[in-house]
Amino acid sequence: MYLNCHSYYSLRFGTFSEVTLLKMAQAYGVTSLALTDINNTSACLNYIRKAPEFGIRPIVGIDFRKGAEQLYVGLAKNNQGFQELNTFLSKASHLSKPLPNLAPEFSEAFVIYPFEKVLQLNKVDFKAHEFIGISIENLRRLPFSKYKTYTDKLVIQQAVTFRNKRDFNAHRLLRAIANNTLLSKLQQTEEGRLSEQMHPLEELLKAYQEFPNIIENTENLIAQCTIEFDFGESRISQNQQVFGASKESDFKYLKQLCDTGLPKRYSVITEAVKKRLAVELKTILEMDFVSYFLINHEIVSYANSKGYLHVGRGSGANSIVAYIIGITDVDPIELDLYFERFINPYRASPPDFDIDFSWKDRDDVTAFIFRRFKNTALLATYNTFKYRAVIRELGKVFGLPKEEIDQLCKGHFSMDGIDEMSKLVLKYSALIKGFPNYLSVHSAGILILEKPIHHYSATDLPPKGFPTVQFDMIIAEDAGIFKFDILGQRGLAKIKEAIDIIKENRPNEPEIDITQIEKFKNDETINTLLSKGRAIGAYYVESPAMRGLMCKLKVNDYLGLVAASSVIRPGVSSSGMKNEYIRRHREPERRQQANPILAQIMPETYGIMVYQEDVLKVANQFAGLDLGEADVLRRGMSGKFRSREEFKRVEEKFIVNCREKGYSDTLIFEVWDQIASFAGYAFAKGHSASYAVESYQSMFLKCYYPLEFMVAVLNNGGGFYSAEHYIHEARMWGGNIHSPCINQSDHHNTIKGTDIYLGFGYLKNVENLVVKRILTERQLYGMFKNFDDFIDRVVISIEQLSIFIRIGAFSFTGLEKNELHWQAIFKINALKKRSGNPTLFQPKHKNFELPKLSHNWLEDAYDQMELLGFPLYSYFDLISEPVASTTKAKDMPLYQNKEICLYGILVNTRFNTTKNNQNMRFSTFIDQEGDYFDVVHFTKVVDKYPIHGIGVYACYGRVTEEFEHFSLDAIWTKKIALKADPRASDTPSFDSLKKMN
């Protein structure tokens, strides 16, 4: 009988979830209920899924509003009606137009106008599908209204938004947040009414007992509404079912692609290859995943036609069909990839294909998908109110001073020491925390469906310009809607740009075929670099932790890198199994300590769970769960389904089965703890293998074209490290680094031979328009001959020109900076104001003879730090005191368990939290020779000796060793001060001289 109910997906308005709404309805004896969130359908699918559990027949619709003003409520008679409502709302949303005061004529949806709106509009004509909603409050006014005679058009419209006064108070706070106003200044028109509460069914009917026609009309309306979607085990895939003309032709096409691709992937087609291919094709056909594979192939084919690089990963990377038709570059035969992780008869969802493209190419691939496929949308995600954000928002709403808000956010208070207003902030922040705040776009998910998108949801149009549904991936999978993951990453952009730079900088080099993965895998030089951790700039393998792991494992082949890519993941590391894996890898005799059952299941990883597949294998072969149950376990560990009953049942069965097999509880819970600690973080083996392929491609370029590769890394935003460190790396590989140059630089970094010119993009406070003028002038009319030529050709202010002078952009003139500064003042002033148009006659410049002005290289370093953010000189040249120790990083093995002092430039630092919730710090430095060393600040010294930004540090500590990888346990660290800028503050500056002039 409730036709206008809101959940908290009526964003910044509602106060409880759709499940809470169902619980309340059940408790009040309600058997039919309409969820009508305000201009939103986020909760509809989950509401329909959960309603039967509470004995409630669901009805869905939309509360159409203009701001807080209710216009009308649309109720879907059926699925077609739901689609009509979604289409209507979406059209307004996409065009950013306000909704009209009168609803359109829906064919399969009812429209209920609230009594107040009908009075306001003086509406007298009602179509068959239109009704007037009467709340309990309206019953007092109805007898005195002309609408009392519209007996067949009146229905109950008792809105439900709150459970109690506390909900109403929270609602008012949400409305104040939404309107960015103090609570005391919130307009009543922006609020709901406290009376918008649910009453027990008997009480509701009693309120309308004098108007039996209203009750009868409402019952009739409800009886005509039904909505159906399939969920859980009964669901079927909602994805596009047919790629071409028919399912039969689709399978024929897939087989044809395999026949064509097979000899390209395998020079020798073994029986193992034939058998695996046949089994996969049969399973793909039986499980109706043919179109899914063909759609992914179509996406990749388009990318290939445009010259875009891609990486196919996810569980689908375990598939030989995906490998043969080019979706992935991972050979499942070579790696013995577990078929059941990719697909098994119990798995209703298709395998995951995460397809990475360059961040520069991804939007074009996405646009192609929307052009190519009819029913397409992006997937949404919910941004929820986080604790600190709520505190800040509520603090502003209550008018608290910033200092008090900061204090509450940081937790630096006691309940006895704060006032009542602050206590209210804390009270309601605890209630609002976790509410959905606004809808955002999923990082990668694209939906390609059989039915129109609006069959399932209304859509928004975010800045990217692609329609986006209003539900997230959790309910999408429940309803049989499986996303395609199209991602953007910078690693592929680095590879692609490096190849382009090599063609330009080394035109005589042979064409690079970056797909020659087998050649790269067997290259000793590349493998040697990996084993030494010399991978700065290379995708996924450049971080200090990964480089250290590769050194400890002595990674010198593809399979070793595949394992390392998963061993590094948080779960394996935190469980202690990373160190055990390293020991068993380095000490073959230690492998005998592995449980024989686990060693038999996972011989390649010495009985240690490293990959996601290992969860399936252990659950199936060790604990006797079937593959369907094992997959529930794997998914449950990811956190998505951890609270669901199916997961809890599987966990219990795991333990029961193991006990029946006679395993000790010690062994059972040791294995279970391993699963629990890492399954949510580990990669599928095929996923790790895909990353390893890209790493090898990066390492090939780093090995044989290091300077061009490092320029590409810098031009694509770097990676784990700062631009400054990548510049250092380029210098270590023989690059000559130059500050931005008027004649040689572009907006991005450029290379000519071994000379690398930093881009104008690094220069802080330089206007884009000025850079554009310089580059355009140079492109049209050639290099600048001298300083006068530049001033004649480029319209530029003295302030902007001074930046280029200070950074050394005119060093090609051979003039000192101080002289250039003075020349600039005289010549710019002489030219007065100029237009941007070319002049017929070049002006004649006076060249003034200036006295020799002193200049110090240290001034250049300070200019570079100010203008670029870092010096192009070594920090060791800039420090104010001599290095007191000659010990270098390479000497650390000579001082194991001894105390030494190392001097190093900070490269990277990060905190880690111990099991006791205390901080410790890991830092990486480079010494005078450019070699790396790691320093660990344990909890006793971490706060005593903080790290304050980049510079040279004296690091004194004890040398420790772990698997031949040495680090320093800090006893103390000290940052060394820099030499002072020789330009004393009382010396007239260029700016002051300019003002005097």
How would you describe this protein?
The longest helix is centred in the last third of the chain and has 20 residues, at 685-704. The chain is of the alpha/beta class and 997 residues long. Helix 21 packs across helix 31 (685-704), helix 27 (612-622) crosses helix 28 (627-637) and helix 36 packs antiparallel against helix 37 (817-831). It starts with a strand and ends with a helix. The protein contains 41 helices and 22 strands. Strands 1-2-3-4-5-6-7 form a seven-stranded mixed sheet. Helix content is 43%, strand content 14%.
- Radius of gyration in whole Å, from Cα? 34 Å
Structural class: alpha/beta
Q: Please bin the fraction of helical residues.
A: 40-55%
Largest sheet: number of strands, sense, barrel closure: 7 strands, mixed
Low-confidence stretches: 992-997
Count of distinct strands: 22
Query: How many distinct helices?
Result: 41
Indicate the mean pLDDT.
91
Distance between the termini: 83 Å
> Which of globular, elongated, flat, extended, rod-shaped describes the shape?
globular
Order of the strands making up the biggest sheet? 1-2-3-4-5-6-7
The portion of residues forming beta strands comes to 5-15%
Please write out the topology:
Layout: E1 2-5, H1 18-27, E2 32-38, H2 44-50, E3 57-66, E4 69-76, H3 79-95, E5 109-114, H4 115-121, E6 130-134, E7 154-156, H5 165-179, H6 201-207, H7 212-223, H8 247-265, H9 271-286, H10 290-305, E8 310-313, H11 320-324, H12 332-335, H13 339-342, E9 354-358, H14 362-372, E10 376-384, H15 387-398, H16 402-410, H17 420-432, E11 436-448, E12 459-460, E13 468-469, H18 473-478, E14 484-489, H19 490-505, H20 517-521, H21 524-531, H22 544-553, H23 558-567, H24 570-574, H25 577-586, H26 596-601, H27 612-622, H28 627-637, H29 645-660, H30 665-678, H31 685-704, H32 706-715, H33 723-732, E15 736-738, E16 750-752, E17 755-757, H34 768-781, H35 787-793, H36 798-807, H37 817-831, H38 857-867, H39 875-878, E18 899-913, E19 919-926, E20 932-937, H40 939-942, E21 952-962, E22 965-975, H41 990-996
Parallel strand pairs: 1-2, 2-3, 5-6, 6-7, 9-14, 15-17, 20-22
Antiparallel strand pairs: 3-4, 4-5, 8-9, 10-11, 11-14, 12-13, 16-17, 18-19, 18-21, 19-20, 21-22
Helix pairs in contact: 8-10, 15-16, 15-17, 19-31, 19-32, 21-31, 22-23, 23-31, 27-28, 28-29, 31-32, 32-33, 36-37
